[in-house]
Design a protein that fits this description.
This protein is of the alpha+beta class. The chain is 26% helix and 37% strand. Bound molecules: fe (ii) ion (FE2).
Length: 182
């Protein structure tokens, strides 16, 4: 079975030896290679939420449960991340900054659909959108190489695609909104 305490210790140890995401990728890949074990360890998702599993200035581990059909607007992290899906699907759009203007506008660059067992490293400056395309919850382990909740980062208006400061409270509220829709 997936052992959360052991997973956190493995991530912390890996980070102390190498602060890049390389070894974290392997740890997350091993965990989500057995999605049933992750669900047995974390519990089956019951509601959309961002569950904090571990949080320090160097490392954040989240259990992110996306509501049915939920989309989060384009955003960056300003720290590396590793996403591992254990149930459902995350459709990612990756964006790039447009060079014209003052560089605060973005355009879609590529897309990647992730299913259970898939692991995706997300670079420090990557801008992405996540959609759960399913009519049920999607669950993923997200590991970040820093303090996910403290970083002063950006989001992009989904209509105008213009940059603005990331609003953590509003984004967390979107998960609660998804629960009310269900
Ligand atoms: Fe993200």
């Amino acid at each position: 079975m997936f052992d959360l305490d052991r997973f956190i210790v493995e991530c912390r140890t890996a980070m102390s030896l190498d602060p890049t995401d390389k070894s974290i990728r392997e740890i997350v890949a091993r965990a989500v290679s057995d999605p049933t074990a992750v669900i047995a360890g974390l519990g089956a998702p019951t509601r959309a939420e961002v569950q904090k599993l571990y949080h320090s200035p160097e490392l954040t581990v989240l259990n992110v449960v996306w509501g049915a059909g939920m989309t989060i607007m384009p955003h960056n992290h300003l720290m590396w991340a590793v996403i591992g899906i254990y149930t459902g699907r995350e459709d990612n759009i990756f964006w790039r900054r447009l060079s014209e203007g003052n560089g605060c506008r973005i355009e879609a660059a590529r897309a990647k659909s992730l299913g259970a067992g898939d692991v995706e490293p997300v670079g420090r400056d990557i801008i992405h959108t996540v959609t759960n395309p399913l009519a049920r919850l999607t669950g993923a382990i997200h590991v970040y190489g820093g303090d996910f909740f403290a970083a002063a980062r950006s989001e992009w208006d989904p209509e105008t695609l213009l940059e603005r400061p990331f609003d953590m409270e509003k984004n967390l509220q979107m998960f609660e909104q998804a629960n009310r829709i269900l």
